[in-house]
Each structure stands twice: as C-alpha cells, then as structure tokens.
Amino acid sequence: xxxxxxxxxxxxxxxxxxxxxxxxxxxxxxxxxxxxxxxxxxxxxxxxxxxxxxxxxxxxxxxxxxxxxxxxxxxxxxxxxxxxxxxxxxxxxxxxxxxxxxxxxxxxxxxxxxxxxxxxxxxxxxxxxxxxxxxxxxxxxxxxxxxxxxxxxxxxxxxxxxxxxxxxxxxxxxxxxxxxxxxxxxxxxxxxxxxxxxxxxxxxxxxxxxxxxxxxxxxxxxxxxxxxxxxxxxxxxxxxxxxxxxxxxxxxxxxxxxxxxxxxxx
Length: 266
Prior knowledge:
This protein is mainly alpha-helical and 266 residues long. Among the domains are: 43-130, Cytochrome Bc1 Complex, Chain D, domain 2; 133-229, Orthogonal Bundle (Cytochrome Bc1 Complex, Chain D, domain 2), CATH 1.10.760.10. 61% of the residues lie in helices and 2% in strands. The protein is built from eleven helices and two strands, in the order H-H-H-H-H-H-H-H-E-E-H-H-H. The chain has helices at residues 2-8, 11-60, 62-65, 82-91, 113-126, 135-138, 145-158, 160-163, 186-195, 210-226, 239-265; strands at residues 170-171, 177-178. A two-stranded antiparallel ribbon has the order 1-2. Strand 1 (170-171) and strand 2 (177-178) form a beta hairpin. The longest helix is centred in the first third of the chain and has 50 residues, at 11-60. The chain is elongated.
C-alpha cells in the first residue's frame, strides 16, 4: 500500500497528467476547428448553389412560375415541391416546356446535372419538400424474388390503372396520358412517386415507404430486363391490341384464301 501511495505522489506523475491534459485539449480543439471549417465550406457551397440556382430560375422558369416561384396563370407554385420535383421535371426534359399543352412532354434535358442540382437547391430553400434520393435508397440489387413480387403487387394496386399492368403507359382524359416506364431511370421513378408530377398522385412515405418504392423499382427494372418471354408483346396494351391483331390477321387470311379459291375455279 505504501509503494502505491508513493507512486501517486511522485513529481513525474503530475507532469505526465499535465502533458496528457494538454494533448487532449489540443486534439479536441483541432478536431472542432476542422469540423467547423468543413461545416463552413459546406454552408458556403450550398449558399453558392442556391444563388446560382436563383439566377437560372429567373432566366428560365420565372416567366411561368413567377420570380418568387409563387406561381402564375401559366404555371403552378413551386413552393414546397422540393428538390426531387425539380430533378424529375428538369432532368427528364419536361421543364422548361417546349410549348403549352395538356401535358409536358419528355425530351432531352436543357440543363446539365450541376445546373439541375442548383435549381433544385434554390427551390428547396423556399420551403421543405421531398429531396433527391441517394444511391443507397435506389439500390435494388439485393432485392430477393419475394421483394420483387411484393413490388409487383404494390405496382398493380397503385399504378397499373394508369400505367398499364406491363408499365407500357395508357391514355387518360383530355389529351393526357400516363407515359411508359420503360427506359426511365430508377431515380426518376422514385421521384415521380414521391412528388406526383402532373396527373400522378403523390405517394408519400406514409403511403408507400422508401423500401416499398425500391421494391416497385426492382419489379419494373426486372420486368424490363426480362423482356417479353411469351413472344411479341404487341405494345403490351392488353387484350384489345391482341384481339385486334388476331381479327385483322384472321380476316386477311380468310380474304386471301377466298381469292385463292376463286382463282382456282377458273
């Protein structure tokens, strides 16, 4: 016991404690300084994106949506739609619209990814809204066959009435239509579910969770990769297209056979 007590009172023990305290204090200060610098850089970069996005918005979008994105008679308000809506509409080329019509048409995008991100940052700064999904959220590579089957069930329950059970699209009212989902990126499919563009309803996370949205994407992409194992898909428009094909082809065969019989009788 005496030897332990002597070691505790040794002059070098006090010196060692002082050195340790200085090292810990210096390390903590350095870490906090770096964290603050990184946060300041991130904040500055975000502020720059918002500023650049506001300039792009004023030059390309304000005519229809208003200088403050408050909306006009030509375009709806964008306050609260979030960066995801901007990424979908501008990234798919639907916005800016080429011409007024019942529905914005998909076309090559007018802006690059950086400009789209800046526009999204500006709109997102106006009010909270759905954000652009990250790569982890969109990763469906680890989905099991059961997950894909569940995604198909969710799609048929919520989406097939407009987009067709085969996701080939379909006609709506007054010149509008639900587009085909073939060739649409996973990010844009997710953003469409989260934001409800044009005639599509919004499927919030309380309606369809992010995991369920990923399962829907897995189902659509798996179906797209498999193609049409049953043969010619005839546009995947269902029994009407198939019946029309059979009727037309059958009627043509009957007419051709009748002409052949008539020519043989002479």
